[in-house]
Amino acid sequence: MALRSVEEGKIDSKKMLPTGSERILVLDDEKLIVTMVTIILEALGYTVYGETDSLKALEKIHSNPRLFDLVITDQNMPNLGGVGFSRQACELNPDLPIILCSGDTTMVESDEDFLSENRILLKKPLTAMALATAVRTLLDKR
Asked: Which of 107, 103, 101, 109 is nearest to 130 (CA)?
């Protein structure tokens, strides 16, 4: 499946991105980023739930720990940052794959307890290819 160019509304036939049908939670305090990531992932076939509040997102996982097949979260969030959110989400569902996004990855890279087989760290700004590849990589490990 080709990805639609958000700016042009045309199919980009030069880059084929991996697709899927799983349920993904996208968490970022910036609504625009949630919207952009949602557009990319939905174009690839995923069902996406966007959230800008980490506490509300955690409530969704608490109410149904198996609701999402994967979480994509920003590190710098008010109330509960990405690492803290991820740790609590994994207490509810230890097998939950997580992609943590950050402009400054040095803090997370030094946290050996956080990084694991089912967690990927992506540096912002994200590209559609990096995002799609990371999503598929984690989901295919399950």
From this structure: 101
* Residue 103 domain boundaries: 17-141
How many other CB atoms sit within 10 Å of the CB of residue 52?
Answer: 17
Total number of domains constituting the chain: 1
Taken in order 106, 87, 96, 79, the sign of the CA dihedral is negative
Mean pLDDT for the stretch of residues 107-113: 57
What CATH number does the domain containing 38 carry? 3.40.50.2300
Provide the whole-model pTM: 0.85
pLDDT score for 118: 85
Q: What is the H or E stretch that residue 40 is in? A: helix 31-43
How far CA 128 is from CA of 5, 9, 39, 43, 111, in Å, comes to: 10, 15, 10, 11, 26
